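USER:
Working in pairs, take the chain set out below, taking as long as you need, and write a paragraph about the fold.
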Amino acid sequence: MLARVTEYDALIVGGGHNALTSAGYLAKAGFKVAVFERREFIGGAVCTQDDIFPGYKVDVGSGVHIMIHLTPVVKDLELEKHGLRYVDMDPIAYQPLEGAGGFGLYRDLEKTCESIAAVSPKDAIAYRAFVKSWDGFADKLFKAFQLPPNPANLARSFVSSVKPDIDMLRGVIQSYGHYIKANFEHPQVRSALAWLAAQSGPAPAEIGSGGFLMWHAVLHKYGAKRAVGGSGALTVAMQKSIEANGGDVFLNAPVARIELENGAARKVILEDGQVFSGRVVISGAHVQTTLLDLVGKDYLPSKLEWKVQHLRVGNGFGLIHRLATSALPEYPGADPAATNGMQLLCPSFDYLEQAFRDYDNGIPSRNPCALGMTFSGLDPSLAPDGKHLVYLWGQYYPYERSDGRIWDKDAELEEGAKLEEVMYKYAPNMHGKIEQRFTQSPLDLEQRIGLRKGNVMHLEMGFDQMFMFRPLPELSGYRTPIPGLYLCGASTHPGGGVFAASGRSAALVAMHDLEGGFYGKAKKWLEGALGRSS
């Protein structure tokens, strides 16, 4: 690789969607930026490859895009101009019942309540009340997610605009498992709500996890979407936006280290020896990778090094079994549109809790919960004519196993077979319809995408590692103690998921520092992007 320029305003480590968001904002504001992605594909955990199954476009990370649509990122970076298109998922999620029937969580709240009422009229009433009671608070929470998590911003998001509600606050602090059991009674309604909340990682009984249930309220307002051409269509459009604004994106460009000059981050050195200089460095890599590996322990204050080393990364999380098939699942008695949404293949709340207990004991869940995703039904461009893609995300799977097994091909296929059995219970038509298999274990997620220990959220999304505690209080504002070095990505507030909020916030913080408070070339564009004077 021959560098086109070696002197930049900002050097961006990693090509994930948050890193690309930071680069996109800086490039749009007129700064010269360079992005360095170690793989040959852009996108990190928001990436689609055409070399997994010949003729198919296969995601190797995220699939459903929800939270990014609560931000101005798509509009600000003009991603539609660069080819990004979305289709709506409706229902957003669907809970088939073993045997026949089911109910859906639709964009329309009343349609959702009618669907739930078919299995539990009492829970339909409870669900409507739940969504309406959490609606305003959820909007304020997502506003807070889009700002650096300091006390002033949190106060502006909540206290100054919403009369504090002690019951609502209690609902956030308690576990989502307790909230569900206290407010809903039908086994499948409970499991559907719990299984969706569990997608963020915390166990149903974990204190402080109530907010992961509360975000259901936002689904009915903003919906869930799928990027046409695969999840990676988002990051491909981001790359085009960066390049259209004069930025450089380097693929097959693994960073060996971030080099300091006079104590400040000023250079990125690639594994092939190329050196790039910049005024700032923004890393979208895992916080431990950034500080312990790329900067190096010797350049960190000893107390900070110890804290970063002992962050709760967790022991894996999920496993995804990707299938090329000759059919889509058919759920007897269900809405024919069920496959437009996430399919919640979790029979009961107790089943979910037992799956977590297995994981907590260091073994893959003996009876895993599965999240079915069938995007080729919405987007035929993903598969050849008459063929489909079926993804089965399962929880829970430890990275380090207490049974001594390692995540080799045999172990992956063994766990993939369990997920197939879960699917067959709900969609018996899928017997004999699987043509190719590709399983991403926690080890594959680490090796392929750089997710340490296979945690798709980078760090556990526990209450002790959220808001101003993510990843640590002294790192929560995207700046680090090393001048010129900034963090973005799932390691930082607001955490994992296809959100882009941390990438945007990190860019604005870095831009502020570069321009000494926005008195330079970025000021006019930034005011427009923020919709206010800075």
